[in-house]
């Protein structure tokens, strides 16, 4: 993949953190992908789009990697749709130093479900749309069928080992 080395450098500090690695044990949108799989997938897609658009790809990748940040499994649909972005931001802020852009990405990635939390930055909007794409691919069972996800799976295995 064209940008994988640059992407790895952009997220290295975060992805090497044991708390982030622990999200590999949590389920996300389906049994096809763990939370960490979803975060890395969304982060990489966001990185590539922002890089090609001349936006801040590094902050986009970091914000996307933490957009659903949590350390425990949650099953409530109400929690997931309406409150998890604020809770993810609060928890991420306790563990990491985040830029305003990264904070906006995490807080507003659920737009338009969170109608009044419109993304402030172009990068936030990119992550928002990348998240919808990645979640859809996971729910439809197509996550593991793309070249991108196969390559990212190798990346996740390398980090966990």
UniProtKB/TrEMBL annotation:
Q: Which domain of life is it from?
A: Bacteria
**Which CDD domains is this protein grouped with?**
HDc
A Pfam family annotated for this chain is: HD
The signal peptide annotation in the UniProt record is none
HD domain residues: 36-134
What InterPro entries does this protein's entry cite?
Answer: HD/PDEase_dom (IPR003607), HD_domain (IPR006674)
Protein name listed in UniProt: HD domain-containing protein
